[in-house]
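Summary of Year 1 activities. Much of the first year was spent building the evaluation harness for sequence design. The harness presents a backbone, in tokenized form, and records the residue chosen at every position. We chose the following record to illustrate the format because it has been used consistently in internal testing since the harness was completed.
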């Protein structure tokens, strides 16, 4: 790695289209790693440096970045600022995205208090809730507003992204209202699968699924001996009656 100089990155090249979803999912990770390098005054980084900072292997990183038409310079590496710009442009965070959060309970409060969205290109324009006891409450420099104002806010602030942090029950209704108001991307924290029309993107965040994936790896790490014993299965008419596996995933 080398320290930052006053050299500015050159003009952007055209980004290739048709980037695989898995690569797209890693772009924000690279962006975060590049931002950390840039904040430390690093001007260029090798693919190995960058891969270590992002927690992936360098071959995968090089392949991912090649979809952006970015190959680095042999013996020098990647220009941190320029690559950061390329990735930010590809993700779409060089522009400002207006976001509303609906459901300002525990999770909504936590998200509302998080200061990191602004620096990543997301502007929280409204915190909305249906509970009259919450409406008017101040969180930082914002005030919780009535969910009834949704349509006016979406129109006035050209909101394209809605975050749902309500309980599961009302989440579909909230989602439908967001979509009808003109929101075209939804991040859902409620433990329910939501239906959206074509053209609306939806992503679900479920911490319990992430924890279950970690539990799976923990189980593998501790070896076969740590695996729970499977009870002997009762025979039924010559067939085996498999015990059912319980329940869905809640948050
Ligand atoms: N995805 C995850 O990893 C994760 C983690 C924790 C919680 N959750 C989920 O996030 C959601 C919020 O959790 P919480 O602990 O903040 O709940 P909470 O009960 O503290 O807050 C929910 C808020 O939604 C509001 N609300 C309810 N119906 C509404 C409606 N129709 N319109 C507008 N606002 C409405 C309520 O007034 C309340 O303020 C839950 O669905 C929970 O299961 C998800």
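For this record, the design step produced the sequence shown next.
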């Amino acid at each position: 790695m080398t320290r930052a100089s006053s050299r500015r990155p050159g003009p952007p090249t055209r980004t290739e289209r048709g980037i695989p979803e898995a690569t797209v999912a890693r772009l924000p990770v690279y962006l975060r790693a590049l931002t950390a390098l840039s904040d430390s005054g690093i001007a260029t980084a090798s693919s190995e440096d960058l891969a270590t900072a992002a927690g992936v292997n360098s071959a995968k990183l090089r392949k991912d970045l090649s979809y952006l038409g970015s190959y680095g310079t042999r013996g020098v590496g990647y220009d941190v600022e320029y690559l950061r710009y390329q990735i930010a442009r590809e993700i779409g965070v060089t522009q400002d995205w207006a976001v509303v959060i609906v459901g300002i309970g525990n999770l909504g409060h936590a998200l509302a208090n998080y200061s990191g969205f602004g620096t990543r290109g997301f502007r929280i324009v409204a915190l909305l809730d249906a509970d009259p006891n919450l409406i008017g409450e101040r969180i930082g420099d914002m005030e919780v507003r009535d969910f009834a104002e949704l349509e006016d806010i979406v129109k006035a602030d050209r909101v394209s992204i809605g975050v749902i942090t309500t309980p599961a029950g009302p989440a579909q209704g909230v989602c439908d209202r967001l979509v009808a108001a003109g929101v075209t991307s939804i991040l859902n924290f409620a433990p329910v699968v939501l239906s959206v029309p074509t053209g609306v993107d939806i992503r679900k965040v479920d911490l319990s699924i992430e924890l279950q994936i970690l539990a799976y790896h923990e189980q593998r790490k501790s070896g076969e001996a740590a695996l729970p014993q499977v009870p002997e299965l009762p025979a039924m008419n010559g067939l085996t009656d498999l015990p059912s596996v319980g329940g869905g995933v809640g948050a």
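Residues 95 and 121 are 6 Å apart (CA to CA). Quantitative recovery figures across the full test set are reported in Table 2.
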